[in-house]
Amino acid sequence: MTNLSARQIASADASAPLAETLGRWVASFSLADEPRRDELLERASLHVLDAVGVALAASAMEDGIAEPLRRYVGGYGSRGCSQLIGVRDRAAAPLAAFFNGSLVHACEFDDTGYERVVHTEAFAVPAVLAIGEERGSSGLELAEAWCVATEVALRLARACDDRHGLWRSGFHNTAVFGCFGAAAGAAKLLGLEAEQTANALALATSYASGTNAGWGEASGRNKSVQPGWAALAGLHAALLAAEGYDCAHDTLDGPMGLFASHAWRGEWTLSRVTDRLGEDWALLQLTFKLHAAGAMIQSTLDALRRILVDHAVAPEEVERIRVVVPAQYQPMVERWHDASYRPDSPYGIGFSWPCSSACMLLYGRVGPEHQRWDVLRDPRFLALVDRVDFAADADASLPEEEQVAFVSVETPRGTFEAQQARHLGYFGPGTSERVKDKFRVNARLVLDAERVAELEAAILGLEAATAGALARLLGDDR
Question: Per-residue DSSP letters for 113-176?
């Protein structure tokens, strides 16, 4: 059997609504028959590993974000069929997906798709783990569902002509498009047929939400729950469709559909959603974050870390740090420049070039464990923060993928410089080992070494695993 491409599916009815074309592709997709099966399975395993590690680390954050989420989920008294990561509790699949998705995005350490700036792990992994556990799915089925969940979200985001997706319209790309991704992944695990999957995707428009307001102010915790909501909402859409709930299919691309309502400050090109869908995988362009900071800061921290390693720079000898940010981030530099030196909360460290740089200089790493008040108030830390000068590159003529982050560190021994274009989380030689190392450090914040090794082996051997076995390792019955 050969998987159908979106072009083959759409050719049957060129006027079909987008929800139907995507529904037919999701329902027909088989990872077992995919020519790039092994490559996709490897990526699925690494992204599940990464998401689980980040959620575990977030469950132990100083601000205790996991506790109000746990109490909220527990307040429903739902039947406990799906595991919450990092705590003993279980909950109904949509609530578990909400809890876990909120944790995955809680410390700015999940993946990034730079084409339209979408963080996929926070909705795709929690959605498929929650439904997969409830359904008793195999590891291969989890990977298959992760593929369609991630690809559908990235493809819908790609329709926006604006490089920033829905950002200029005020919406959070991850939250809006993640709802559709979660619906697609859940539909796959529920075994929905093409018509039901189209209903799930069309229904998801009614749930898609999340704005980009308030991220850099106060705790910014409105941002953390939005991918969790996307995971929950997508599951609701798929579960309703599975019960036979029906709706109009033009809610994505119709004259009053998703793109008309959400991309109101830009244009969109719907053919980009289905062009070579199932052939040219957008998910293979995803990147991993190696530092618990915003996507725009990753290259800066790679360059700074190289200076520390190559020149053994000690924090106390640093006299000045100069950071030149790629020109594409000029709007963020302007918006957050002054506030970056004294964030309102430790969570703000991850949005601040000066604070993230000081953290790297002081600890050699920027991790969730550094988002604490004692770090933000440490005189040594604040002294380093105040020695950072940062500004955006004035030359915006280079394509965004060619723009570089530049760092120089002045010391009595001399001035050391480094620059970085694509950060080290882009997939290539050494990436898998970096992701594994990241998982071990994150998971060890909560689990003992033996359980970390067991969990890593099970996730990396996803094809031979089951959702239930992974859930048992994630539970607190150890």
Answer: BTTTTB--HHHHHHHHHHHHHHHT-BHHHHHHHHHHHHHHHHHHHHTBSSTTTTGGGTB-HHHH
Lowest-pLDDT choice from 336-350, 375-389, 455-469: 336-350
Cα atoms in the 13 Å half-sphere on the side-chain side of 445: 21
- Cα–Cα distances (Å) from 392 to 81, 319, 406, 468, in that order, read 49, 21, 10, 48
What count of residues does the chain have? Answer: 478
Q: How many beta carbons lie within 10 A of that of residue 158, not counting itself?
A: 21
For 294-315, write each residue's pLDDT tens digit.
Answer: 999 999 999 999 999 999 999 9
Q: For residue 407, report the phi and psi dihedrals to the nearest 5 degrees.
A: -135, 135
pLDDT for 202: 98
Q: Which domains does the chain have, with CATH numbers?
A: 6-285 (1.10.4100.10), 295-420 (3.30.1330.120)
pTM assigned to the model: 0.96
Instruction: Name the residue among 35, 290, 76, 44 with its Cα closest to residue 185.
Output: 44
